[in-house]
Design goal:
Elements (H helix, E strand, L loop, with lengths): L1 E4 L14 H9 L3 E5 L10 H6 L3 E3 L2 H7 L2 E3 L6 H4 L7 E4 L7 H10 L2 E4 L13 H18 L21 E5 L3 H12 L3 E6 L2 H10 L4 E5 L2 H8 L4 E4 L25 E4 L20 E4 L2 E4 L9 H22 L1 H7 L1 H4 L2 E4 L2 E2 L2 H7 L7 H4 L2
Parallel strand pairs: 1-2, 1-4, 2-3, 4-5, 5-6, 7-8, 7-10, 8-9, 10-11, 11-13
Antiparallel strand pairs: 6-14, 12-13, 14-15
Helix pairs in contact: 6-7, 6-10, 10-11
Length: 371
């Protein structure tokens, strides 16, 4: 199969779809890997490294799309890429369709096969979301700590406090991968951490694995309302696969918070779990509303591209090999986890939550897989 890896052109996106090691594995399986020149530079991977493992190169993004049967990316295509995508071309990347009707309709129009990392589901887990969730969770605490500093507009509180001075109160909404990693980081810095979830089994697990300064609590609207009043850093990580994130902190709650409180919305790719969140970039990462700092960068892991690219390729490679070796139809028939990743196929939405998000028609993916 001819595989293309274009340069990511979303603002401040420094990752690349595959590492040289990943490209080598694909090539050794008999596939051609065409890289856009310089695509790996910002992640710390030179063209020379890709050349040594047998990759070919295109000077332009147009060249990559023109040659490829399968495109491996990191982030969703942006508007300037829409017309480059070909009917029946397989796109394997993060899409987060439920947060963008424009993107959804553009991919329907393209006639491509869109297989989304974030909805590949294996035994109830999201294996291609996990590595970036780990990165984003850890970064959420790191960035939150920074914006709590007074020069950034924050409360001026050190997350872990010092001798004789209380640490900051950190509230984490969602006890999944991102929430767990955010809690680990905050706890390690000495903060007083409360982590909320509605899954009692998950709360029991968190109780057993977290240090003493982390308190797992059952999440209710009342609990959230109470906790935001005393928290200095609030991190939202709640995710519903393929759907928009629920709005768990409402606009009217901002007035009950301490001025200078920091909100970090890790769920912003799926629309955000704070009502007042708006997507931001690494170039301009925060918005201040009613004295409350909102950090909602849509590609947080892009700030640490070497770590992120390596972790992502470690997770995606085995699935990319299946798709390349078997073709997308057979791969999805034989691997139900991959089949869950299908979102748009040849002009039809085949993931119900995406169709429901925009009141569009849904087609059962089996119609495509059985023909």
């Amino acid at each position: 199969m001819k595989i293309g890896v274009p340069t990511e052109i979303k603002p401040h996106e420094s990752r690349v779809g595959v590492t040289p090691a990943g490209a080598q594995a694909l090539i050794r399986s008999g596939h051609d890997v065409n890289i856009q020149s310089g695509a790996g530079k910002l992640s710390g991977f030179s063209d020379t490294e890709f050349e040594k493992v047998g990759c070919s190169f295109s000077d332009s993004i147009e060249g990559v799309y023109e040659l490829a049967e399968m495109i491996i990316k990191v982030k969703e295509p942006i508007a300037s890429e829409y017309d480059l995508i070909q009917p029946n071309q397989l796109l394997f990347t993060y899409f987060h369709f439920a947060s963008s009707e424009t993107l959804t309709k553009a991919m329907i129009k393209s006639g491509a096969v869109c297989l989304a990392y974030e909805t590949v589901e294996d035994n109830g887990t999201l294996p291609l979301l996990i590595p970036m969730s780990e990165v984003a969770g850890r970064m959420a605490t790191q960035e939150g700590a920074k914006y709590l500093e007074k020069p950034q507009g924050g409360l001026g509180i050190l997350l872990g406090g010092v001798t004789g001075v209380k640490p900051a109160n950190v509230l984490i909404i969602g006890g999944g991968v991102s929430g767990t990693e955010a809690a680990r980081m905050a706890a390690g810095l000495g903060a007083n951490v409360t982590i909320l979830d509605t899954n009692l089994n998950r709360l029991r697990t968190l109780e057993s694995i977290m240090p003493a300064n982390v308190t797992p609590v059952y999440s209710t609207a009342h609990t959230i309302d109470k906790e935001v009043r005393r928290s200095h850093l609030i991190i939202g990580t709640v995710l519903i696969p393929g759907s928009k994130a629920p709005k768990l902190i409402r606009k009217e709650m901002l007035s009950t918070m301490l001025p200078g409180t920091v909100l970090v919305d890790v769920a912003i790719d799926q629309g955000g779990c704070f009502e007042t969140s708006e997507p931001t970039t690494h170039d301009s990462p925060i918005l201040i509303k009613e004295g409350i700092i909102h950090y909602a960068v849509t590609n947080m892991p892009g700030a640490v591209p070497f770590t992120s690219t390596t972790a992502l390729t470690n997770a995606t490679l085995r699935y990319a090999l299946e798709l390349a070796n078997k073709g997308w139809k057979l791969a999805c028939v034989e691997n139900k986890a991959l089949a869950k990743g299908l979102n748009v196929v040849n002009g039809s939405i085949v993931y119900k939550e995406v169709a429901d998000a925009f009141d569009l028609d849904y087609i059962d993916p089996l119609i495509f897989l059985e023909n």
